[in-house]
Amino acid sequence: MSKVRVLVGTRKGAFILTGDGARKRWKVSGPHFAGWEIYHMKGSPVNPDRIYASQTSGWFGQIIQRSDDAGKTWNTPGSSPEELKNTDGMTKGESNKFVYDASPETGKPLTTHQWYDGTQHPWEFKRVWHLEPSLHEPDHVYAGVEDAALFESKNGGKSWHELAGLRGSDTGPKWQPGAGGMCLHTILLDPKNPNRISIAISAAGAFRTDDGGKTWKPINRGLHSQYIPDPNAEVGHCVHRIALHPSRPNTLFMQKHWDVMRSDDAGDSWHEVSGNLPSDFGFPIDVHAHEPETIYVVPIKSDSEHYPPSSRLRVYRSRSGGNEWEAQTKGLPQRNCYVNVLRDAMSVDSLEPCGVYFGTTGGQVYASADAGDSWKPIVRDLPAVLSVEVQTLK
Amino acid sequence: MTIRVILPPHLRTLARVDGELELRVKTPVSQRAVLDAIEAKYPMLRGTIRDHVTQLRRPMVRFFACGEDLSHESPDTPLPDAIASGSEPFLIIGAIAGG
């Protein structure tokens, strides 16, 4: 019997919502890691019981947690009770050690990026925004971090090394932080080409590797951003989120700071598909599990008013890959609503019909079991939701 | 020497300990020696009190002992005798911040 597991990261802990195949009955567990910010949790596509979590704190820094039993128990990788009992040598405790690679072997050790005042500023690790488990190997996982860089672990999160070619690309010194910091928040693994990874950084833009992470190039042609000196610059765009459908990895959908964009050549060029949206500002974007041309966004009024237009929470769905959008409102608050939906806080399941889920800064997690036609809150009083990921369990 | 350490609640949860830690620490008993002993026994705490690489105290973590704030002391300065003898605990504090 199918089930879904919704992994919810919040400002004050993690919650796991488990639903039946009809997505009517839900069980809520948590808070896990109470009091800590959980930026992101994601399960391995190969082994759904393997879940990685990014746990952070302004006091105590970054922690990586891993569960191998579907979230029932958690350990910082390398320090499970069994590993601590190991008499072969003390565990190194490096699962939270994210050190930027400045070695000569990278070719271009890079130490600074552009700061708010236009000067160069040292790269400083702050937190992991996004964890992306490999499509093929449960111990292989990528981490997108602030200040923006991509790290990789091949031992289940016990230790990490940077894919330094990204920061070492020619544009690195021009990257600059947005209002939320300079974070690498999106990691898309191409299901048809294991050497291709696309990532996005606020506020640098989108980048792609076609050689497994050794070399990277900006993929921002067609983006137009009036908040930077050259609106068509190679980098500097505040990309909020990118999504793809596994069956068509060359088609990418992007929610930018302003503008919803589409690429049909893996990001080499983009065109706008905002169409009739009431606002083309927003954070998340996602694709229907079975219809590659059906996409979802949540319009937000503006970059300073981080709440829905007309105080009505509406998911907009396009069945034509953009441009033509229809508001989905059934079950969502249509007055006095001033929540936001953050970039990693939307996900879909792969049941039939497709389920769509999103979390709000007001602590609600809404689910639609009919591809967006209607919505119900699974929970409505969690701490502010930072991320939502869904696992479909067969 | 066996010394006593009190961790802030979130780090006790992370290390899965209740109450005070009792740790064997090499002499002279300094902040560095105490932190080395903590991290050796509880590797999940590495990076949460001081930086992995620079070994500097995280900005919003403080060290108190015998009614004094020793956060800005050199990590190699010997701690007070009462800490080294275990009669007083070494306190690791998450700084008060926010509203």
Topology:
The complex is a heterodimer of chains A (394) and B (99).
Chain A: E1 3-10, E2 13-20, E3 26-32, E4 37-43, E5 51-57, E6 61-67, H1 81-85, E7 112-114, E8 120-122, E9 127-133, E10 141-146, E11 149-153, E12 161-162, E13 183-189, E14 197-202, E15 205-209, E16 217-218, E17 239-245, E18 248-256, E19 260-263, E20 271-272, E21 281-287, E22 295-300, E23 315-318, E24 326-328, E25 346-348, E26 356-359, E27 365-368, E28 376-379, E29 385-393
Antiparallel strand pairs in A: 1-2, 1-29, 2-3, 4-5, 5-6, 7-8, 9-10, 10-11, 11-12, 13-14, 14-15, 15-16, 17-18, 18-19, 19-20, 21-22, 22-23, 23-24, 25-26, 26-27, 27-28
Chain B: E1 2-6, H1 9-15, E2 21-24, H2 31-41, E3 61-65, E4 68-69, H3 81-84, E5 89-94
Parallel strand pairs in B: 1-5
Antiparallel strand pairs in B: 1-2, 3-4, 3-5
Please characterize this protein's 3D structure.
The complex is a heterodimer of chains A (394) and B (99). By secondary structure, chain A is mainly beta. Chain A has a domain of 177 residues: YVTN repeat-like/Quinoprotein amine dehydrogenase (Methylamine Dehydrogenase, Chain H). Helix content of chain A is 1%, strand content 40%. Chain A has one helix and 29 strands. In chain A, the strands form eight sheets. Chain A has a four-stranded antiparallel β-sheet, with no helix packed on it. In chain A, a hairpin with a 3-residue loop joins strand 18 and strand 19. Chain A is globular and about 55 Å long. Chain B is an alpha+beta fold. Chain B has one domain: Ubiquitin-like (UB roll) (Roll). Helix content of chain B is 22%, strand content 22%. The relative contact order of chain B is 0.25. Chains A and B meet through strand 6 of A and helix 1 of B.
